[in-house]
Amino acid sequence: MSDPVAAQYEAYPYPSRNPQDEKTRLIDGSPSNLKEVDHYVFGGARDFRLPFRALVAGGGTGDATILLAQHLRDRHCPAEVHYLDVSTAARRIAEARAKVRGLTNIHFHTGSLLDLAGMNLGRFDYIDCCGVLHHLADPAAGLAALAAVMQPEGGMGLMLYGALGRRGVYEAQAMLRILSERGEPLTAGIDLAKRLLAQLPQTNALTGNAAIGDYRRGEDAALVDLLLHPRDRAYRVAEIDALAHRSGLEIVSFINPWRYDPDSYLTDPTLKARLADLAPLERASFAEMLAGNIKSHICYVVAAGRAPSALARPDDASSIPVLREADGPAFARAIKNDRISVRSDGLEMSFALPRLAAAILARIDGQRSLAEIQRLLESEAGVRPAAFDKDFAALYKVMNGIGRVTIRRVRS
Ligand SMILES: C[S@@+](CC[C@H](N)C(=O)[O-])C[C@H]1O[C@@H](n2cnc3c(N)ncnc32)[C@H](O)[C@@H]1O
Asked: Which residues are CB-contacts of 147 (< 8 A; sequence separation ≥ 6)?
């Protein structure tokens, strides 16, 4: 195999997955949770009773493929999910996972996403490309190849490494290149990596990076992916914006939105006021520098100019709020002291929730519109429309920000 990246994933498919685990759990994640795709690509208005075509480019061991195929099957959508990867070893694991689940809506292909134009797979409503473009010699050519097979009204979910959150990674890679001898097998590199990690001083940037922890489990595939990769690069927010524009695309939103909002971290009113009028991407760049722990940037992109209509907003009373995990009452019961906490890449955050948070959450069932929830609360507890609107807006900012609530406009 001439491409060193393809050779690596043939020898060490990543992430490691045991197909039998499909019997007991579904791995949910971003991008490609279907509720999220609907919210950030289709304005919440996609009717999944109609045909839907998805491509998972660089599908690896199958996480996004399985998630999409399962969600689409659950909705009885006449869908096709196309998996594409250069690694046949990774494909075998993804195929075994699909088999355990009995998923028949997946088409498996072996090849490079750079060759999509000649594969005659047709156009796709949605394309997942998670953790792949940053391994290509020319990521822009990769994104252009994907854009060429995307429906004009479709979109993509991307993940690219974050430069600031990966501090220490590239120095460790450089040290391992110095330590390695030419032509040595990967097993020798793994041994050297384990030895080096065991000796990193406290002051080393990787040691001090709480966002990067996968390698601490000592799993070979994770060590190879992080420290012995023949080709990887990392991005800042502005660089992803530029990359998207080169392919005629634009960013709808980064995931999760709270991490890209300076107001999540700052309380000082002077600082907040200075940032208030910046464009969303400038605010996102600021937040990236402020937090310093974003090790991978996840975002949804659509054709340039379409972002405002691609993003669902909770502005009107007919919007249907949807919880990522369906049980609203359980979520409401879990709220403690009107706050909700999240932990991301070493940072623990706690957000204040409005007075009506638990009451509203308990009535979100994925079918009721905002108007219907308000009427219920009015009849049960005398909540007037203005009070509801104010508290829902505050609740939505937090819950959408942490990836727990999306909007849809189509009833099932
Ligand atoms: C880090 S893994 C990510 C896998 C998967 N997307 C995920 O998020 O779990 C990167 C994958 O991209 C695949 N890959 C690398 N270059 C590729 C290319 N040019 N075309 C298709 N797949 C590629 C690798 O074989 C590997 O399975």
From this structure: 156, 247, 248, 249
Are 68 and 34 a contacting pair, CB within 8 Å?
yes
Contact (CB, 8 A) for 167 and 210: no
State the distance from the centre of ligand 1 to the C-alpha of 62, rounded, in angstroms. 10
276: CA distance to ligand 1 center in Å? 38
Assess whether the C-beta atom of 319 lies below 6 angstroms from ligand 1: no
Q: HSE, CB side, 13 Å, CA atoms: give it for residue 190.
A: 15
Among 404, 363, 366, 409, CA closest to 383: 363
pLDDT given at position 340: 92
Please state, for a pLDDT cut of 70, what percent of the chain lies above it.
99
Query: Looking at residues 219-227, what average pLDDT do you find?
Result: 93
Residue in the structure block whose two tokens are 């998670």? 130
Q: Tell whether ligand 1 has an atom less than 6 A from the beta carbon of residue 15.
A: yes
Q: Rounded mean pLDDT of 355-361?
A: 95
Predicted TM-score (pTM) above 0.85 = yes
- Over its C-alpha atoms, the chain yields an Rg (Å, rounded) of 22
For residues 252-289, one letter each, b for 16 or more C-beta atoms within 10 angstroms of the residue's C-beta and e for the rest, the string is bbbbbbbbbbbebebeeeeeeeebeeeeebebbbbbbe
Model pLDDT for residues 15-72, shown as the tens digit of each residue? 999 999 999 999 999 999 999 999 999 999 999 999 999 999 999 999 999 999 999 9
User: Measuring from atom 13 of ligand 1, which residue has the nearest CA?
Assistant: 58
Tokens in use for 320?
A: 């249907």
Mean pLDDT is lowest, of 149-158, 335-344, 367-376, for 335-344
Distance CA 64, CA 72 (A): 12
Residue 158 has pLDDT above 80, yes or no: yes
| Nearest residue (CA) to ligand 1, atom 23 | 58
How far is residue 328's CA from residue 360's CA, in Å, rounded to a whole number? 9
Q: Report the C-alpha gap between 190 and 187 in whole angstroms.
A: 5
Q: 58: Cβ below 6 Å to ligand 1?
A: yes
